[in-house]
Amino acid sequence: MTVFRSRPWRPAVLSAAIVATCARGAGINTDVALTPPLGGVILRVQFRYSRLFDDPTPQGRVVHRIVQPITLAYGATERLALIGTVPVVYRRVEFGSGGSTSETGIGDIPVRAKFRFYQKDELGKTTRWAAIAGLEIPTFDSAFSSDSVDPIIGTVWTHQEQQWWLDWDLIVKLNTAGGLAGDDEFFADVAWSHRIVGGEGADVEPWGLYGLLELNGRYITDGSVELFGSPGIQFITPDFIVEAGVQLPMVRSMKSPRLSTDYTVILSVRFQF
Amino acid sequence: MTPTNLSCVLGALALAASAPAAVEQVSVRVDGLGCPFCVHGVDARLGELAGVDRTAGVKTSLETGTTRFTWNTDVEFDPADVRRAIREAGFTPRDISVWVTGTVRRDPADDSATSLLLADGGRGPAVVLRPGDQADRRESWRDLVKLSARRRGAHGARRVRVAGVVRARNGDSSWEIVLDRWAPLEFGALVTAGVNELAGVQDSLRTMKALAALDTVIHAEADHATGRVKIWMTGKDPDLDLLRERLASAGCTVSFIRVEQGSDDSLPE
Question: Using CB atoms, which residue from A124, A125, A241 is nearest to B37?
Fold first, then answer.
């Protein structure tokens, strides 16, 4: 069976990679205006399972998709971070007629620079604002690449205190490909986090268990809109973060032939070197 | 040169070679620390400074917003290095508190218990500081961290541990110091050691350096004319094995060692 040549789920695959590139603290699906220390490296590996359904075409497709964005962030200066993400993707498509196909590949690679242009630090809290610019480099993967170089620009704001923090980001991806993959995408995310429990001691480094609530929105210039409510939990230490969350649709209005996301489950770990 | 003059020369050598006032412990208030993940960068950047004792490590507290570390007294402490490391980690350094061991003198003009005179190392006038005083000259900071263990000519000199807060002014170009408190290292015992290898000035210098590295040594003098080293120490029961080991490391063979209980009157003037 032939799948649509326009590969209607490709932007959704890539959006998962873009919003997952935040590497330091804060949200699971929302970026943060913090950057790694000068010379520091943060490695983030995510596991994102999504179920897509509500096919507006007669094919009745249901898609099971696993994206594993592997992100490296490097502190080039005390204000500038260079961030690259390689999204490894597995996708299984089930058709209403009973058949299925599955594919594995590498999605396009977002490479971004994040520059912190505003910083106000106080005892136990900070407010920061950063600008983001980059490109999504095509891998020319037959299933998961847009085959085009797509500019990314955005901004991210963070206010962090020891008991709670708030982040929001606005990110635009200007898709230069033709067809469905050429529609531009706008991402808007807000994350609120609260420390549930935490501590430190003479021989115990600071740690904290945080509850997280995010709103993750996406607008595509063909008129498609998605808004997710995303609760999550994070265990944070100075050296690593383990986190888990789920994205549940609150608003879902996708234009044909795009599929809607039923839910996404996220497991993630970050290491700091 | 008469023996008296020679002793004076060696005394001067003792001044030059004995331990300068050394920063031992450092605590820095760091603003902007909001989550445990932030702590890593501060610890990592400070841990790369040459003077940070890596055995003790850097301890950053999220709750108090402070980072603490032990400083290797062999390395000169410069607050600018600490501030730069914290900035490179992405955070804002504030007050730096230091614990310094060095020699201070009571102010001859004001012999009250709370008035201390920092020896100046021979570079201009000494600086009088009282708790809460601010010394806003960069020279004052240098006096504090490079405080020499000069004894002769001092009035009631004491080797003390000083705690103070260093604040940057005009960026990192100058500093102001607020002394919080100090505690004298109480003189406890005078140790006289007979050594065989004090053939000249260089031997004396090497011996003084070896002794000055000991925290318990308040002051030491070597006289190669008599082959004796006099060591003023804290505590009534000095660790003689450690002294012998330190003298041996300087190439000295100890022929005898004698301990006398000390009193302030027996401190050298």
Answer: A241
Give the amino acid at A176: T
Q: Please check whether residue B56 touches A, CB under 8 A.
A: no
- Which residue from A minimizes the CA distance to B66? A123
The answer to whether B243 touches B210, Cβ cutoff 8 Å, is no
The ipTM (two decimal places) reads 0.85
Residues B89-140 pLDDT 10s: 999 988 777 766 555 544 445 444 333 444 333 333 334 444 444 444 434 4
Residues of A in contact with B61 (CB under 8 A): 200, 206
Q: In terms of pLDDT, which residue wins out, A179 or A246?
A: A246
Q: Which positions in chain B touch A236 (Cβ < 8 Å)? A: 35-37
Last residue within a domain, chosen from B132, B164, B184: B184
Distances B251 to B15, B86, B196, B246, B248 between C-alpha atoms, Å: 20, 42, 9, 9, 5
Is the dihedral angle over the CA atoms B23, B25, B29, B30 positive or is it negative? positive
On whether both B177 and B224 belong to a single domain, the answer is no
Q: Which helix (H) or strand (E) holds B143?
A: helix B138-145
Residues B174 and B246 in one domain: no
Q: What is the residue range of A124's domain?
A: 10-272
The closest of B213, B222, B256 to B73, measured between CA atoms, is B213
| Terminal Cα-to-Cα distance of chain A (whole angstroms) | 47
